[in-house]
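Technical note accompanying the year-one report. For the benefit of new consortium partners, we illustrate the data format agreed upon in the data management plan: each record pairs a sequence with a structure-token string. No post-processing was applied to the example shown here.
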Amino acid sequence: MVINILFEKEYVSARIKAMNGQLLNKEKLESLNQIKTSDEFISALHKSAYEKNITSINEKTSTNLNMNFFDSINKISAFMPKTFNHDMKIIESMWDFENLKTILYTIYAKKDTINLKKTIYPKGIIYETFIQSKITSIEELGNMLKNTNYYESFMIGYTTYKNTKQICDITYALQKQYFNLHKKTKTKEISDFFKTFFELEDFQTITKLKKRNLKLKDTYLYFPKKTDEIKTKYEKLLNKELPLKKSKENYLLKYSKRKIQENPFSFFLVIDYMIKKRQEILHLQSITRGVIA
């Protein structure tokens, strides 16, 4: 039994190292920043992990890059030990919540949701339901969610929203569901990571509401009783040279690397790769938007 577990961890470690080897290095990413045309961009990604996804630059490019990310996640899920299946599904539910937030903010800003079908994360029940629907209002989104696991938390937030007209009342209610879902993870390493992740989310909420002079409600926080502790713990992330979102990602990367040093075969190998891969995708999407413009 012990030998099997060790073999599985070594196998996962070897596979993740191979996938890390396919990430673009710092020099490559910096050279891509200088690209001005779509032909240059496509040529630069020749023989990279993105070659099959990027054959032209157009409105579908962002979706194609997201698909590359999810292809990587699917590969990881395929070679992870079965004992991680439950937790991997919880991790993957993140994209449902991200898609819901994007749809909500778009409706709230009174923008057309048609184009979202080409840009939201192409994975999960929200994506599959949304692309078959015509959603133009928050009420219609609620109706779309009736047969999903997200309806109850949506309605909790929507009830408050009807009085306050603050869209964050809905998004925070949905995020609380996501938070509660992660309490069910069975792997301590994943549980530890998401505790840090949600603390950082609280720090961002506290900082954002303070800048906007908005009242901080306990319902907006994952750890309402730890507000002072969280502010003290993460105040160094308020770097004027970096957006807070980027500082959060860097903190999580450093946190993961520290955990990997403590245990070279820990699940943080997977987490570390997923963060780096997502950062890379976002960077490429930013470049393609510049090329299209």
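Partners are asked to follow this layout when depositing records. The chain has one domain: 2-292.
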